[in-house]
Design a protein that fits this description.
Elements (H helix, E strand, L loop, with lengths): L14 H17 L21 H9 L4 H6 L11 E3 L10 E5 L17 H5 L4 H17 L4 E3 L22 H16 L4 E7 L14 E3 L2 H8 L1 H7 L6 E4 L3 E2 L2 E2 L7 H8 L5 E4 L7 H7 L14 H8 L5 H17 L18 H14 L1 E5 L12 E5 L25 H9 L4 E5 L4 H9 L3 E7 L15 H13 L3 E6 L14 E4 L7 H9 L35 E2 L8 H6 L17 E8 L7 E10 L5 E10 L10 E10 L4 E9 L5 E3 L4 E3 L3 E8 L7 E7 L8 E3 L5 E4 L4 E4 L2 E3 L7 E5 L5 E3 L4 E4 L5 E10 L5 E11 L10 E2 L5 E4 L10 E4 L10 E2 L5 E3 L2 E5 L10 E4 L10 E2 L5 E3 L4 E4 L12 E3 L10 E2 L2
Parallel strand pairs: 2-3, 3-4, 4-6, 5-7, 5-16, 6-9, 11-12, 11-13, 13-14, 14-15, 27-34
Antiparallel strand pairs: 1-2, 7-8, 10-15, 17-18, 18-21, 19-20, 19-24, 22-23, 24-25, 26-29, 28-32, 30-33, 31-32, 33-34, 35-46, 36-37, 38-39, 39-40, 40-41, 42-43, 43-44, 44-45
InterPro entries: Cadherin-like_sf, Cellulose_deg_GH3, Fn3-like, GH, Glyco_hydro_3_C, Glyco_hydro_3_C_sf, Glyco_hydro_3_N, Glyco_hydro_3_N_sf
GO biological process, one term: glucan catabolic process
Family: Belongs to the glycosyl hydrolase 3 family.
């Protein structure tokens, strides 16, 4: 079944988080001034232009040589980022900096926020939470100088042994697509590109990037299980780019596989996203380029660069193929304002904030799943006078993050012991035992009213788990503590499902995943009931490995250089339904401190436009406020050969005690389709479709029927995506959007959401107006015909600030001398010096909001992007590199964030013609530059 996302109602539970995210965005504006668009110049007329993106791309590409185009497709080494394409100064093309990752700024960078693992954000089942998660990631990546965030990871968790399960979303293609798209929109709202990964069928680490990891999977399973989340991500998410994977798919490496790149991403999905290889995932030159691979990373494997140029010269790769790849890359660069907004971020910057920390805590609060609460053991009440906190994971060895490229370095982590102790206050005795001795821990537990045991299991990129059991010592510890104290609560810090042989002997269990730097505060919030548990499982927890879909060696980790995906569509909860097995905890499961009921299911009839509306009433039947996730499952007619039921909608609601609300789910033809292997296309069967609503895959109290009498449901409407848009604030725009309707004589009417302030769309589909403020947004344009059939397309729109009103003034330094271009020379490499102030054009400078200091149409530049004391300063074509960014500091200093050094007058000279340099900032007068009105 094709899984198209349905509109969701954002839960009130996350209104505060959304507000915090907006606060974070405001803080970012203070840390990273909105970039001003430089005026178009004769050298680079595509910079600062208000022409359509496609025209600007064509104008630039007409000036590019083959070697310059190929440099846009080839990574380089030596930057502060995990990947980079080089700047081309003569064409004003900025560098593209790519940085991990899916859980925030990674690779050991400091001064960042360690968010909870992506699986924790997924367990919120809340698009508002995912968007806020993405906003923190995007803002911190941008503030570090990155332009592309390598995330999110949206691969299906096919098996709980996968070492990267913690950094993905879950086991369901609908859930992965909707939440992945929400995160992407959050990331890209900050102006940072998101690169969704890993295309496709990448579900294990064992043998990765070798021919032994050869996934044997049929096209229907690819289309219905492993590709839909990518469709949603590049569609409604408008992701700028896609990363192909280390997998081999049906005998062909993913990054050389035309079936998933050219045929699916570029043609079937109609996406203009560019495709980048995972690091080292390319294995041949022509095979990658001809299959649709636009960038090779990190670029040191010898397959692109000179080898690609040779392949073009030899006729193995056409020039048209190169042009198409570069056009996709440049389209996104223009669309995200990279030519108009020079990055002023720096890898050295501290980018975390109190607002980001608050978001991290709220994600951990709402992503933690309460799995058991016998006899209402939780929340802890005033009658609890003593708590035994047990386990190294509670204090000395807190497992707050997974490993690999999704590992984020926290400045500090609030341990569970610290969080519980702080929240408990002086009236509660909190004792700690590290759990190294089960008998000692049991003794400590026996003396307390409640025992809370913390255990964990490590997961990391690069290796899979051999089992899903906790360490035997951890299982023994829990059993011993539970025997000593029946009021034992277990907190699991794991990346995916684990077995629980002690489950019947404990009173409470939390799955807290990897909770990030706010670990201790979040678990204290939940234990004491300051926050109602509202997380739901995005994966099934089996009782043992014998229950999982891939339960043979041929399926996992593979045999004879093949990994057989013979389970086909029966992945996750689908498999448990098909085999009539009861897992330990089902997909979608999660408890609350209150209770809920479902009632009043209504299933509307299909309209001529091919849509129906399903509604259900959700009531809080308990005594306190709480949140519930209503889940819609569709059961296809048996003729379709589909799994027994599949998630097709969800919505999180927050209700006061006794309150009710109605949740609404639109169901369209696309939610009822399956892949027809005969026609190699989507098909809708006629018949009765079951409609089920509940709060997990195993608890579905409401049941109804949607009858489909014709395979042609309404008349399809298609909207042509205009691609990313980039305009200048204050400049009038007119962008036509077109649609087609198969019903003769009908003209669809258009509407739009997310347009930049000052713009509107006419009923005929033309977007006009004058954008009034800078920023990046995702625009959704919908066309609707007279029968009610609709189609929506999504694209990014970046508005860059105008340079109008930016003053041009002299800068006065040591001894009253002015910042000067020698003899008004603006030739690339000409020196920037001090000289007697004389009001010439070479002493007229504009300090734009993007951080560049400009004179005579060029930028003040640190020679060779050097970082050493004494590196000379020159004038050069503006090229978007950190070598041309200058921030105003204290005492009139001008700081180059890329080097961390200040513009300096050597030896406090006052001699005319002395060339300036960079030097350690010292607060001396020879580093003071005062703009004179």
């Amino acid at each position: 079944m094709r899984v198209r996302p349905l509109p969701l109602t954002k839960s009130r539970a996350f209104v505060a988080l959304t507000a915090l995210s907006l606060g974070a965005a405001g803080l970012l504006s203070a840390e990273l001034p909105a970039s001003a668009a430089p005026a178009a110049s004769a050298t680079c007329p595509w910079v600062g232009s208000n022409a359509p993106v496609a025209s600007r791309v064509s104008q630039l590409m007409a000036k590019m040589s083959l070697s310059q185009e190929i440099s846009m497709m080839t990574g380089t080494k030596g930057s502060s980022f995990v990947g980079e394409t080089p700047a081309i100064g003569s064409l004003c093309i900025p560098a593209m900096n790519l940085e991990d990752g899916p859980a925030g700024v990674a690779d050991g960078m400091t001064g960042v926020t360690q968010l909870p693992a992506p699986v924790s954000a997924a367990a919120t089942w809340d698009t508002g939470a995912e968007s806020a998660y993405g906003k923190v990631i995007g803002s911190e990546e941008a503030a570090k100088g990155s332009t592309v965030d390598l995330g999110p990871t949206i691969n299906i968790v096919r098996d709980p042994r996968w070492g990267r399960a913690f950094e993905s979303i879950g086991e369901d293609p609908y859930l992965n697509g909707v939440l992945g798209a929400a995160e992407i929109r959050g990331v890209q709202s900050t102006g940072e590109m998101a690169q969704v990964k890993h295309l496709a069928a990448y579900n294990q680490e064992t043998h990765r990037n070798t021919s032994s990891d050869n996934v044997i999977v049929d096209q229907r399973t690819l289309e219905e299980i492993y590709l839909p989340a990518f469709d949603t991500s590049v569609g409604s998410g408008a992701a700028s780019s896609v990363m192909c994977s280390y997998s081999t798919i049906n005998g062909t490496y993913a990054c050389q596989n035309p079936n998933i790149m050219n045929d699916v991403i570029h043609k079937q999905f109609g996406s203009n996203a560019f495709i980048t290889s995972d690091w080292g995932a390319l294995h041949t030159t022509a095979g990658g380029a001809n299959a649709g691979l636009d960038q090779d990373m990190p670029g040191d494997d010898g397959y692109y660069g000179g080898a690609l140029q040779t392949a073009v010269n030899n006729g193995q790769v056409s020039k048209a193929t190169i042009d198409a790849a570069v056009r996709r890359v440049l389209t996104q660069m223009f669309g995200f304002g990279m030519f108009d907004n020079v990055s002023s971020g720096s890898p050295r910057a501290t980018v975390t904030s109190s607002a980001h920390t608050a978001t991290a805590r709220q994600i951990a609060d709402q992503g933690t799943v309460l799995l058991k609460n016998a006899n209402n053991q939780l929340p802890l009440t005033s009658s609890t006078k003593s708590i035994a906190v047990i386990g190294a994971d509670a204090s000395t060895s807190v497992r707050s993050a997974g490993g690999g490229s999704a590992s984020v370095k926290a400045g500090s982590v609030v341990s569970p012991l610290a969080g519980i102790t702080s929240r408990a206050g002086s009236g509660v005795t909190v004792t700690y035992n590290d759990g190294s001795s089960s008998s000692s821990a049991a003794t400590a537990a026996g003396k307390a009213n409640v025992a809370v045991v913390f255990v964990s299991k490590s997961e990391s990129e690069g290796g899979d788990l051999s089992n899903i059991d906790l360490a035997s010592s951890d299982n023994a510890l829990i059993s011993a503590v539970a025997k000593a104290n029946p009021h034992t609560v277990v907190v699991l810090n794991t990346g995916s499902a684990v077995t629980m042989p002690w489950l019947s002997s404990v009173s409470g269990v939390f799955e807290a995943w990897y909770s990030g730097q706010e670990d201790g505060n979040a678990i204290a919030d939940l234990l004491f009931g300051d926050v109602d548990p509202s997380g739901h499982l995005p994966v099934t927890f089996p009782t043992s490995l014998s229950q999982v879909p891939a339960n043979t060696a041929a399926q996992w980790p593979g045999a004879n250089n093949k990994v057989e995906y013979s389970e086909g569509l029966q992945v996750g909860y689908r498999h448990y339904d098909a085999t009539n097995q009861t897992p330990l905890f089902p997909f979608g499961f999660g408890l609350s401190y209150t209770s809920f009921s479902f009632s009043n299911l209504t299933v509307g009839s299909l309209t001529k436009g091919g849509s129906a509306t399903v509604t259900a009433k959700v009531t809080n039947t308990g005594s306190r406020a709480g949140s519930e996730v209503a889940q819609l499952y569709v059961v296809d007619p048996s003729s379709s050969g589909e799994p027994s039921k599949q998630l097709q909608g969800f919505g999180k609601v927050t209700l006061a005690a006794g309150a009710s609300t109605t949740v609404s789910f639109p169901v369209t033809e696309e939610n009822l389709r399956h892949w027809n292997t005969g026609s190699n296309a989507w098909t809708t069967d006629t018949g009765a479709y079951g409609i089920r609503v509940g709060d997990s895959a195993a608890n579905i109290p409401l049941s109804g029927t949607l009858n489909v009498t014709s395979a042609q449901l309404g008349q399809p409407v298609t909207v042509t995506n205009p691609g990313p848009q980039a305009t200048i604030a204050g400049a009038t725009v007119s962008v036509p959007v077109t649609a087609k309707d198969s019903t003769g004589g009908q003209t669809p009417a258009f509407s739009a959401t997310g347009l930049p302030a000052g713009l509107s769309i006419s009923a005929s589909g033309t977007i006009t107006g004058t954008p009034t403020s800078a920023g990046t947004t995702t625009v959704d344009v919908t066309a609707k015909d007279g029968n009610g059939a609709t189609a929506t397309t999504s694209f990014v729109w970046t508005v860059s600030p105008s340079t109008a009103g930016v003053p041009t003034v002299p800068y006065v330094g040591q001894g009253g001398k002015c910042l000067d271009l020698a003899a008004d020379d603006n030739t690339n490499g000409a020196k920037v010096e001090i000289y007697t102030c004389n009001n010439t054009s070479g002493q007229s400078w504009s300090h734009l909001a993007d951080g560049t200091l400009r004179s005579a149409g060029k930028c003040m530049d640190v020679k060779g992007a050097g970082t050493a004391n004494g590196t000379l300063v020159q004038i050069y074509d503006c090229n978007g590199t950190g070598a041309q960014v200058w921030k105003s500091g204290s005492n009139g200093s001008l700081i180059n964030p890329a080097s961390g050094k200040c513009l300096d007058d050597p030896k406090s000279s006052t001699t005319d013609g002395t060339q300036l340099q960079i030097w350690d900032c010292n607060g001396n007068s020879n580093q003071s530059w005062v703009p004179r009105a």
